[in-house]
Amino acid sequence: MKSLQVRDVVYTYQTKYQSVRALNGVDAEFMPGHMYAVVGASGSGKTTLLSLLAGLDVPTDGDIFWDGTSTSKLDRDTYRREHVSVIYQNFNLFAHLTVLENAAYPLYMRKMPRGEADDIARDKLFSVGIKKEQFSRMPNMLSGGEQQRTAIARALSAGSEVVLADEPTGNLDSENSKNIVDILKRLSYEEERCVIVVTHDPLVAGAADVTLQIKDGKIAGKK
Description:
This protein is α/β, with parallel strands linked by helices and 223 residues long. Helix 3 packs across helix 4 and helix 4 (114-127) crosses helix 5 (144-158). It has helices spanning 46-53, 76-82, 99-109, 114-127, 144-158, 174-191, 202-207, and strands spanning 4-14, 19-30, 34-39, 61-66, 69-70, 84-88, 162-166, 194-198, 210-215, 218-222. The protein has 7 helices and 10 strands. The chain has a 6-stranded mixed beta sheet, sandwiched between helices. The chain has a 4-stranded antiparallel beta sheet with strand order 2-1-4-5, covered by helices on one side.
């Protein structure tokens, strides 16, 4: 069973004026079939951890292991393309692509035949409640909740074992937030994905199997 393991991770970056230690000895393990919430004040290190889990960079010290191999030794482009999907607060859909094309985009990037990719994307869009008549629309023709569902469908189409979400309900009202939380829970429970959500939203944190609190770059609590 593939897992993400974080072992004594330190991450330091340089600003114009000083060196900042964003993470300072973080240990955690993330397993498939579970939903995790990462909470903490702004600047505590939550988003930095998510970026490292996504393979956008490697730790300054310590290691993040995917299926037993350090991300520093992986081809991180392949890791991101084949194993990890990220869902953002601002949706990050391509404005010039239709809803269907956005959902199928990861498969296009893998050179999958377009008809096959579109069939998979249609199925995933239906699964998150997007209607057939919306498939040909551009993202700006959708509500915020529908755009976030499309972003989730894109993650589903990719087939990634790990789904990372950065404040996925941050731009949504309470009803749409609940719908997104329900979809993320289904991803972990029914599809055996490892879902990790950075959030300030108590609704999201309350729905998680495990909540990790980060303070000053360290895990300050777990429940």
